[in-house]
Amino acid sequence: MIFLWQQSDWHRLTRYRNKLHHSLLINGQPGIGKREFSFELCQYLLCSEVSEQDNRPCGQCQNCRLFNAGTHPDFHVLTSELESAEGRLSLLTDYSNRYLDSKEREKKTKYSRVISVDQVRGLIERFSTHAHISAMRVALILPADCMNINAANALLKLLEEPPSDSILVLVTATPSHLPATIRSRCMTQTLTTPDKKSALAWLAQHLPEPQIDIALTLANGGPLEARRLFETGFLQHHQNCLNGFAGLAAKQVTPIDLAGQLDKLEFGQLLVWFHRFVAELVKFCVTGVKPYWMESIRIDTQKVSVERLYGLYDRISYYRRITRGPVNEQLALEDLVLAFQRIVV
Fold first, then answer.
1. How many domains does the chain have?
2. Sheet containing 75-78: which strands, arranged edge to edge?
């Protein structure tokens, strides 16, 4: 699926179909449709009857039918257990299960956020053979920044000596989290972020009117992320988080109790929220521009050290980076909540 705001990106990338680089790095802000764009691109690369009118996959040839059925033998997807289990795209789950133990995953309460070296080695093995029915083999890796260091090093070997008639498509919202050796061997395509008017118009078709603006704000302007936050109930969680931090600032809630409440939320999403929360507090302290939630949390900003807020922001950044590996989420939350309490109380 190509969204309206991605039309120019699509035409820019596909006008030279037979001259594309063997490794593409698709990046852009979270929630703007990178998954959908990348899947359409992969189908386009495999399609044998591409429409000359709009340069899109035909949807009717054998390659397209197999692709949409989730059974194309020349299309490969590497992703994390968490991404596959969330099922944000059914085809992503279908294809990624070739490289994941879905039965073992179902037994877990916490899914791995890591793309492992074994998955990459499996891809390398399959890429060592010829394409089955298409003119090429295509692999999609997303989020590519979820590869651990061993997986990234293994992929580097494939990037340095790519098999003929093959294309790798890496997708990430944080290309800086990828090793420079990976980025330097890819052609980068940054997808367009829709303007607010376009994003609101799209969301108006999917969300109740009162929720649209707050959802888009929390999603940093990404309309698909805004819809996901609404569908997963995170808008209500957002208010609960605000109430919890308000109680902490007023000394009505202990840090340990608040960390226990927050531990029930998805850790990665919570860190994204906390990052934005602290950034908006810094902006208020520096510029006086009030965030929309300021009325619900009474903080004496005269006592708040901006330097310490920056330190907390960096601490959250650190935890966001290490979530790609094993991390004690409860201890991490307690650390961050205690740090926030020391700043505002």
1. 2
2. 75-78, 137-141, 166-172, 23-27, 187-190
